[in-house]
Specification:
- This protein is mainly alpha-helical.
- The protein contains 13 helices and 4 strands.
- The strands form 2 sheets. Strands 1-2 form a two-stranded parallel sheet.
- Strand 3 and strand 4 form a beta hairpin.
- It is globular and about 60 Å long.
């Protein structure tokens, strides 16, 4: 693992202009944080919120592993599960908003907190998308798994755009879509518990189904708001000579590994002899989302430490072998191969995260989940 150049770690700088966040959520979070004990570590709040999203993912995996439970004629996910999903999602969102305020309240803000927060957010993308997908499923009134796959990539690239901006400008511009989506989806889970998934079979207006509206909102927000704003901020820095890197080539370098990951994973989807995405959509998306989180975390470390982003992530090398072996039928059991590779990706990502957290904790003489100071004996 590449060591972080800790001597040049930058201060955290973020801009949040979303009206929902500024006028509603931040006052709400400022109110809530006053009730938290001052001994509670911000990173523990962050991790707890993340685990609520993981719990949602596992809970829906138990009741709807292959995303067919919402289809007509199938046994649907119990209403209480949707109630729990709505509560857990809003708790995760709330804790994600409160952790930074707790850090400032307890004077415990560190680069470790920034990495912990955004690193877990990058992994949370897949858990959030997969759980939402269970509302519609893959039946006639739902969304095909191939569409799910491309929607996941839209969400992933929307996430990395913000950190690409910070890598180039030194400022993290928080996307507007995040707050709106979290509040909306929390409500949709609760509504689903009351009215049932059958409600989403009906058209919103004319022949426009709810699934089409959700797809349009995700893609539309990404391509009409998130992407243009990110490009504008980076190009503005380039024209004003405030770009942190020497050329546009260096500026766009962080996209190389994510694009190659997209090419590799899409090649497996397109050329899979057994149609692996149709067979194992949940596991395949988990693998892609985790690999993407690993790539994103390395970008976050680079933009934190003001170091050059490495063009290629080593994880892509064994993945090239895996995908090549799958599409050429060298490995005949694609499902087994996917499960083994997914396990390898998850363990690799956890190892990377633990290693970086330990390194930062040792450097700053802090504990990751406690505000107590380590003994210097």
């Amino acid at each position: 693992m590449k060591h972080v150049e800790l001597n040049v770690i930058e201060n955290y700088s973020a801009v949040d202009t979303n009206p929902l966040s500024v006028y509603v959520m931040h006052p709400f979070w400022n109110f809530l944080v006053k009730f938290l004990p001052t001994w509670l570590a911000p990173n523990l709040i962050t991790f707890t919120g993340f685990m609520f999203l993981v719990l949602n993912f596992l809970m829906l995996a138990f009741y709807d592993f292959d995303f067919t439970a919402s289809s007509a004629g199938n046994q649907h996910v119990p209403s209480l599960v949707w109630v729990a999903a709505g509560i857990f999602n809003f708790l995760a969102y709330t804790l994600d908003g409160v952790d930074g305020k707790q850090a400032r309240r307890t004077n415990s803000s560190t680069p470790l907190g920034e990495l912990f927060d955004h690193g877990l957010d990058s992994w949370a993308c897949i858990f959030f998308v997969a759980t939402v997908y269970s509302i519609f499923g893959r039946g006639e009134s739902g969304v095909g798994v191939v569409t799910l796959y491309y929607i996941l990539w839209v969400v992933l690239f929307s996430f990395i755009l913000s950190h690409w901006e910070k890598y180039n400008t030194g400022i993290l511009f928080l996307p507007w879509g995040y707050d709106i989506s979290q509040v909306t989806i929390s409500l949709v889970y609760l509504v689903t518990a009351v009215v049932g998934v059958e409600t989403w079979y009906q058209p919103v207006i004319f022949n426009l189904l709810y699934r089409d509206l959700f797809t349009f909102m995700i893609i539309g927000c990404s391509f009409t708001v998130t992407l243009p704003m990110s490009l504008y901020n980076v190009l503005k820095a380039y024209r004003s000579n405030t770009l942190k890197h020497s050329s546009l080539y260096e500026a766009f370098l962080p996209f190389l590994s994510p694009v190659l990951l997209f090419v590799l994973s899409t090649a497996w989807v397109v050329f899979s002899p057994s149609k692996i995405l149709e067979l194992q959509p949940r596991m395949y998306c988990l693998m892609v989302g985790t690999a993407f989180a690993n790539v994103t975390c390395k970008l976050i470390v680079c933009q934190m430490s003001n170091t050059r982003c490495e063009p290629l992530t080593w994880l892509l090398l064994p993945m090239t072998v895996v995908v090549g072996g799958a599409v050429t039928r060298v490995f005949t059991n694609e499902t087994l191969l996917l499960y083994l590779w997914t396990a390898a990706v998850i363990l690799t990502h956890i190892h990377y995260g633990v290693s970086v957290v330990k390194q930062l904790s040792d450097h700053f003489s802090i504990f990751a989940f406690s505000l107590k100071k380590p003994s210097r004996d």
